[in-house]
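re: ur question from yesterday

yeah so i grabbed the chain u mentioned. its 146 aa long if i counted rite. heres the sequnce exactly as i have it in my notes:
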Amino acid sequence: MTTTVSRKKRHFQFFNYLTDHPLFLETIASCWDATEEIYHSRSAIYRFHKKLKLLKPLLRTLNRDRYGDITRRTKTALDVLCERQRQALENPCAETFEREAEAARQWHHYADVEESFFRQKSREIIIPHSFIEQFRREDLTMLSEN
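ran it thru and got these structure tokens back, copy pasting raw so excuse formatting
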């Protein structure tokens, strides 16, 4: 007996911090160039929609591979930074300061991405479908009474 696990479809959400990643433009260009060109015609919107659909899994993969579990990555980068700072204090030389500076850049990068992620998520408004339907019914009732 085989059982299949059905996954709930999730909507695609584009995160603004992806545009700062060095592979972002390369990913977009490779997908865009691999599909047929868009000309001014009746099928232009269809072709554009198709290109966006092909781009979605590539951007999801880029986000998951480079920024997945961003809170853990930020915490790990901070722990590494603290360790490198301790090493720089115990053994002050050019090499330890360079490693500390690199760890600081890494931590600042992940902290900025995490901040951008939470800022964007905090602006997301999710309205249940049932609420929208109820609002429409009340709106129609008010219109019919006038």
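noticed a couple things. The mean pLDDT is 81. also Residues 94-122 form the longest helix (29 residues).
anyway ttyl
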